[in-house]
Specification:
With about 170 residues, the protein is mainly beta. The chain is about 10% helix and about 65% strand. The chain contains 1 helix and 8 strands, in the order H-E-E-E-E-E-E-E-E.
Length: about 170
Amino acid sequence: MNKRIVTTLLFLCINITLCLPQEKDQHYFDRNRITLGGNLTLGFGNNSTVINIAPQAGYFFTPKINAGAGISYSYYRYKSFGESEKYHYAGINVFGRFYPLPYIVLHVQPEINYMIHTFAEEKRAEFVPAFVAGGGVCYNSVTIMLQYDILQNRYSPYGSNIFYTVGFTF
């Protein structure tokens, strides 16, 4: 009986100690760690037009880890043999970047896009997933990366090849 009382009291003391207010951690939200940036693409030719705007906002959780989210809109038009093919994409994404060494960045970005595709009299609308991964170099506010869409959905706005991006962060 005494052992049971001592064990119960010991258990209560430990629980009360764990429930007492702890010293506040020194980590707090710092506005200086916010990053704003994204990509802008404009391409015009006789048989094609490409427009993309993709702002992103992130936060440096540590000096080497930046993560955030973004939105995007893309428009692609291709013309061949008098017929015009158009793609509209509206998307949202989350991203993570790791800076293992100065000037080096590794990047992952899962996203979902709502695509509207028109060709001749046909119209198709569907959700198109993408998972972009890559890496590159960054200097001051400019980041240049080689990237690849791992999922390779037939209607991916990134196509089936490795592509490069140049981004700016403010």
